Amino acid sequence: MPSTSDTHALTMLVRKLESIAILSDEERQAILNLPAKTRVLQPGQDIVHDGDKPSQCCLILKGWACRYKIIGEGKRQILSFHIAGDVPDLQSLHIHTMDHSLATLTEATVAFIPHDNLRELIAQHPGIAAAFWRDTLVDAAIFREWLIGMGRRSAYEHMAHLFCELYLKLQAVGLAGSYCCPLPITQVDLADALGLTNVHVNRVLKQMREQSLITLRGHTLVIEAWDELSQVSEFDPTYLHLEKRAAA
Amino acid sequence: MSLRLQPIRVRTGSTDAESQLVFENGSLVAVLTHLSDEYGDEAGMWFLEAGFGPLDDPYPPKFADLDEAQDWITRKLAAFPAHGAAGGAP
């Protein structure tokens, strides 16, 4: 049987899946019964490397992580940000060799769930398999939006779009509200995610602050003008496919 | 190869930035921007605001001073001698 803290860990997974799908009581209980080994990781620590063949999946419980690739001369492209409840390497269940790396951006608590147990879970509960599948499809939808941002949006629009996305993702799992959310990452992290330099990130943030669209206090982002921020970036939350979206 | 610099102000955002146009044989090849105090540790560095032809870079570099910037530009241009050479230049 899982310990109390492990049950808490798996509650995060239930909450995440319930933000994008509907689970029955039986399915919820089956997830809570999964074995999970919890670990606390330092910022900037790799969880899985490009080329690894993992035998477990990583559930983020606290803190932020990212998927990334390193290209020539050490240039880093961040592919996605991950928060509590996400299983960023879920694909390793079916695609055995990692084609990118996963690392923490902040101090993070993560839980590892063995592939064997996840396979057994989805074999016995097709509804959970469907929820995981839906999660990876939403993941792909987010990648499509990032691709548009990278190729066709200005730095300003791209960053505004990312802020709207992060806010709604955090809100969906109860980590944000009243247009206020944690943003515990650096300008370099933002630059590496947006395909910009930190010089451009600095300029865009300054411009957004001067226009009173956002406030950044420590590691907290306050969206002061949601309508303007979402309009300027043509943000349409449909691609997040959130089942339970609290009124924004 | 000799480079020529020409000071200019560039409207990079809400404020104008002290910048340099960089010419090679009369052609504009790059714009360098001096990073102001608001860039923290990187204040005082020169940023490749724009690079043309072989100097176009999706991950534009920063340089400690103008000499370092010009060395980088010279190296890059030398690696692609035919690329973007102005037609009609002697």
TrEMBL record, chain A:
Keywords: DNA-binding, Transcription, Transcription regulation. InterPro entries: cNMP-bd_dom, cNMP-bd_dom_sf, HTH_CRP, RmlC-like_jellyroll, WH-like_DNA-bd_sf, WH_DNA-bd_sf. Residues 153-227 form the HTH crp-type domain. Coiled coil: none annotated. It holds the Pfam family cNMP_binding. GO terms for molecular function: DNA binding. One of its GO terms (biological process) is regulation of DNA-templated transcription. This is Crp/Fnr family transcriptional regulator.
TrEMBL record, chain B:
It comes from the Bacteria. This is Uncharacterized protein. It comes from Methylobacterium oxalidis. The lineage of its organism: Bacteria, Pseudomonadati, Pseudomonadota, Alphaproteobacteria, Hyphomicrobiales.
